[in-house]
Amino acid sequence: MAVFLQITEIIVWSIQILTGLLLGLSLVGLKVQQTLKPLIITSLLLGIIFGIAHNFYPSEYLFLLLLVVLFAVLFRMLKAPITQVLIAMLLAVIFNLLIITLLEYNIFYLLLDIADVTLDVGAKLSIDSFVTLNNIFLSMIIVTKSPVLFPKALFEKSLRDDDPEISFSGQVYSVILILFLLVAGLYYASVELPHIRLHYRWFLTIWSLAVTVAIIVFQRKIILFKNEKVQLFLDQQYQKELLSFFSMIRSQRHDFNFHLTAINGLIQKKEYDACKIYIEEMVKSATEINDLLPLHYPATAAMLSTFKERATAKGITIDFIIMNDLRHCPCSVYEINKVIGNLIQNAMDEVERHADPKQPISVELNTELAQLVITVKNKITMNNDRLDDLFQEGFSMKEHHEGLGLPAVKKIVEKYNGVVYPELNVGFISFRVLIPEVFTKRG
Asked: Transmembrane stretches, by residue range (predicted)?
């Protein structure tokens, strides 16, 4: 009989752990269907460990130890941002403490106390069976519906800590702190339940449920509001760059009539050599703009055109070689602009400060083995000894700079399983970015 009860408890605990994990992972935007089998195995192992170890160690300490182990296992298994895994685990713990312990089990025990019925083995098995069936039913709904409370983008954007305007790090850490405090309060309440008076146990159950739901919903509202502000900011940036590009095209068309008049005048005067030079300059100017038109993102074309104008004003030449229109690039337009923009800006700063401005900067977008390859090449005076420091935060060869450009590029590139590295060759440095392309239909 004792062995049967032990096995029953292990099964009950395993299902409770699994349900909490499925709910927690789903609520932070992780796909539970893809990790269902590993989660079942993990929950069963934790259930066995807890079922055996709680006979030898205090449940309070064992609970905390299992949380640490569970976090390490989930982080390694899911390969997701640490904040996303931590929030998922905290939500799973809140579900187990609030819904299972303080709501389901506590209500059953309260009803038994009111009816003055002793909690015997039969009653315990009946309650366990009811709670377990509820968890199984809930798990099936979670796997099927995959409810999301905190969108996955929240954790991806939190990587952009170098840009406070669109960083979600403050909101993420706020959620973690509040959920941690909720877990601490709920855990202490569940431990002290047997020592609390009957009417206060009713109040504590309802109050805990209401406060927890209210806090989580409030946090979600704040995050969604922040997300709308971020989207508005990015849209404004996009529109600004787009208007700049269209303004340049309108200016080119406006000047076209004047060019025709000038050419006609040169032909009338039979100054054919001057006319030839004038036309060559026109073709060169038009080609520079036309080379950027095929880019999938107009905002990227606008940014490159702006860099071209800035460089020309400083006597620096930038040559663009566009062999990939970025159509299959997995990055957002904001991210790809940040990658290319940082590399070009660094190249311009180096050429302007130390190198020969007459030496052109080369910017190439190409494709190699289903990968987008971005190469920015420029003259440089640096030696090989300092290459390893380039991607360290805070390292900069320019005065009054924080050294955040290249680390930001590295974060974005690695987010999409890409790599970025420098090549130094006979006084020239080339930064190469390789990002696996995604060949899906883009909206």
From this structure: 12-32, 39-56, 62-78, 85-112, 171-188, 200-218
